[in-house]
Amino acid sequence: MPTYTQPLLDHITTAALDWWMNKGTAFKEAIQEKPLLASMEGKKKTFPGGKGNIIISVKGDYGNTAAPGTADQLVGYQLDDAVTYYTPANLKQAVFPWKEHHIGIMLTHSELKSDGISVTDSSSSEDTSEHSGRDDTVLVGILNDALEDLSEQYARSMNNLLWTNGTADPKALAGMAALITDNPSTGTVAGIDRATKTWWRNRAYTSAMGTAVTGTPALAAWGGAPIASNPSAGGALITLLQKEYRQLTRYGGKPNTAFCGSDWLGALETELRANGNYSMQGFAAGKDVSVGKISYMGTDFEYDPTLDQLGKSKRCYWYDSRDVYLVAMQDEWRHQHSPERPPDKYVLYRGLTSTGQLCARRLNSAVVMDIA
Predict the structure, then answer these.
(1) What is the spatial distance between Cα 83 and Cα 72, in angstroms, rounded to a whole number?
(2) How far apart are CA 128 and CA 363, in angstroms?
(3) Domain total for the chain?
(4) Residue 353: CB partners within 8 Å, gap ≥ 6?
(5) Farthest-apart Cα atoms in the chain, separation
(6) Residue 282 contacts by C-beta under 8 Å, 6 or more apart in sequence?
(7) Helix (H) or strand (E) holding 274
(8) Element at 238 (helix H, strand E)
(9) I need a surface site. Which of 34, 98, 251, 347 has the fewest CB within 10 A?
(10) For residues 215 and 203, is the Cβ–Cβ distance under 8 A?
(11) 298's torsion region: left (phi>0), alpha (psi -120 to 50) or beta?
(12) Which residues have a Cβ under 8 Å from the Cβ of 364 and sit 6 or more positions away?
């Protein structure tokens, strides 16, 4: 007889309680909303396989950059005056290496038998069949529960990757923190040096940017230190949003997506209450004093629980989803796999893979804002 570990025995027992217990699916107690993941996957673009990198052509310089002011200015002439010409050579390539991601589960045939499921080997794959009367004895199917667990773990993992900067796992994609950085005046993003190519910078109000501005006051054109929320004088955050909107749209961006931590969004709600929440209807008859979804110029400022989880409850990202987006290899995103079992183990494998990268075509239409 095989020996079961206690955790495995507990899992089997939980999934096969007597039929008279409350039948149904397991109650999900710890699944957070993942609005960034939903937004990115809902708007993702695709590229064909066979490419080594995802390459996006960008341009922020004009004229004769090799010798500025030489032959690239409109000048007057008369009669047969000699004139000069220049050759534009200002296109840059933002290079984003695509990355592969895997997550998978394994179930033994013994576990499935305890769930009333037999696995029949065939020449090409493994099939499952349900035992007669299974519905009367199974509370939560182990197989279905395992697949649901895999789906949620995939979502959590991909969501975390989309928020972080990629340094923890160089083989995985680099997320928002790699593109919309705390100090946009330094570093190389997608092969472009932001110390010299200022048009490739995002905007930032963070501790790192505050320190940078203290050392180099000219960097204040791209942001500064975290904002101290204050309801007076129209609200510090409300005023900042109005100021930033002008800058984010200055070069053609149209910010339409904003994700915030709970403290940042709470501070904005406090400023809104203090300065008046105007509507045509006035207060609701039911005395509902809640503050609904807050918007600015068409952007809804949405709470993302992952920012709290990452210790960034005082942060907000505001960007144009046309400029920062997920790019997936065609037919290789959420690709499901059913590997054959090895001949010496009675196990069942299921896996998910995704191939792609988070990319940007413009970064000066994005801002990261912290509150003090």
Answers:
(1) 11
(2) 50
(3) 1
(4) 100, 101, 102, 332, 335, 337
(5) 104
(6) none
(7) helix 262-275
(8) helix 236-248
(9) 251
(10) no
(11) left
(12) 199, 200, 201, 202, 203, 247, 248, 250, 251, 253
Q: Is residue 285 part of a domain?
A: no
Which residue, chain included where needed, has tokens 């182990």? 142
> In the beta sheet, which residues pair with residue 127?
120
Taking alpha carbons only, the member of 219, 103, 75, 240 closest to residue 159 is: 103
336 within domain boundaries: yes
Distance, CA of 56 to CA of 293 (rounded, Å): 35
Domain assignment of residue 81, yes or no: no
Identity (one letter) of the amino acid at 201?
Answer: R
Query: Please, which contacts does 111-118 make with residues 24 or more away whose CB atoms are closer than 8 Å?
Result: 111/8, 111/11, 111/12, 111/142, 112/142, 112/143, 112/348, 114/12, 114/15, 114/16, 114/142, 115/12, 115/15, 115/16, 115/141, 115/142, 115/143, 116/16, 117/141, 117/142, 117/143
Residue 220 included in any domain: yes
User: Mind listing the pLDDT tens digit of every residue in the chain (372 residues)?
Assistant: 344 444 543 454 444 433 333 444 444 556 788 999 999 999 999 999 777 899 999 999 999 988 888 889 999 999 999 999 998 889 999 999 999 999 988 888 887 777 666 766 654 455 656 555 655 555 456 777 777 788 888 889 999 999 999 999 999 999 999 999 999 999 999 999 999 999 999 999 999 999 999 999 999 999 999 999 999 988 999 999 999 999 999 999 999 999 999 999 999 999 988 887 655 455 455 556 666 788 899 999 999 999 999 999 999 999 999 999 999 999 999 888 888 888 888 888 888 899 999 999 999 999 999 999
* CATH code of 47's domain: 3.90.1690
Structure tokens of 39? 């937004």
